[in-house]
Amino acid sequence: MYKTIKGALSTLLAAVLAALFLPSGPAHAATGTLEEVTGFGTNPGALRMYRYVPEGLPAGRPVVVALHGCTQNAATYGRQSGWTELADRWGFSVVLPGQTSANNLNNCFNWFQAGDIERGRGEAASIQQMTARQLADAGGSRAYVTGLSAGGGMTAVMMAAYPEMYTAGGVVAGLPYGCAQAAGSPYVCMYVGAAQTPAQWGDRVRAQNPGYTGPWPRLTVFHGTSDTTVKPVNMADLVEQWTNVHGTDQTADAKDTVGGYPHAVYRDAAGAVAVETYEITGMGHGQPLDPGTGPAQCGTAGAYMLDVNLCAAYEMGRGWGLGA
Question: Residue 11: phi, psi to the nearest 5?
């Protein structure tokens, strides 16, 4: 009898401790499953489409397109970046385009190939078709696009080629649109940058949709100051490109710190945020994360997924109103 009571008390105590000290967070628990979608369009870029939809997601919720970096895959990036976790927490679906080694030996999206970065062609068209399919299936009206490294370069491509489709974009350790063409080589773009004026940068975007007057997607940029794979000058070039597209200057309207890191905001003539940057001091090449169960935490550390006590996906989603 004593052993039975002792065992019951131990079980009860463990349950109480779990309730007090362990994350109960249904908001942190995965409720959906990752599935591959076929037949989403003509798929001229020969990419694969995956999506994550939280269980019981109401119709009309936003769609986030998240593009992995080189050597990564769609499923792992979606989980480690924190985007699928936030989808459960805040209620939206995630499209995870997947590159194949047949297109690029290192599984990089081809942000530097003319045939893949123009409206209606190649990988850009495939990603647009995936976005359109998920918006239709989810009954949604708002889509956002983001990505790391080569995925960040392709994020800028999608913002330039299909500005009417994306409310905002988030470039993490990536590059401005048309950078490889401006620099004469993707490697010069990555390691040195391209010599362009803000107007020249903006013209590269505007050339994709002659006559389009907006609205243009809002841009959020994260870049490590110690990144030697994609030099931080690319963040400055992104600011020049997209402030010019939005018709504003290159002087920040507000500066503060977020998580101890410099944060700058550039507003358009109407006072809306056009561009914002997060300069992650001392970080190398990768996606900023803050693993944990706190309200502002997300992500899982790994290769190119860096715990710097700030989660890029959370900051993007909060700024875009996904958590509202």
Answer: -65, -40
Tokens coding 259: 């998580």
How, if at all, do strands 48-53 and 218-224 pair?
unpaired
191 Cβ contact partners less than 8 Å away, ≥ 6 residues apart? 231
Residue 161 per-residue DSSP state: H
Q: Which amino acid, one-letter code, is at 72?
A: Q
Residues 6+ apart with CB under 8 A from 176: 156, 194, 201, 204, 234, 237, 238, 240, 241
Q: Report phi then psi at 294, rounded to 5.
A: -70, 165
R_g over Cα of the chain = 21
The stretch 130-158 carries a mean pLDDT of 97
Is the pLDDT at 121 greater than 60, yes or no? yes
Q: What is the DSSP string of 119-145?
A: TTSHHHHHHHHHHHHHHHHHT---EEE
Which structure tokens are listed for 296? 């502002």
Split at pLDDT 50, 70, 90, the class of 288 is: very high
Active site residues: 149
Q: Which amino acid is at 4?
A: T
Q: What is the pTM for the complete model shown? A: 0.90
Q: Give me the pLDDT at residue 191, please.
A: 96
Question: What token pair was written down for 52?
Answer: 């994550």
Look up residue 34 and give its amino acid: L
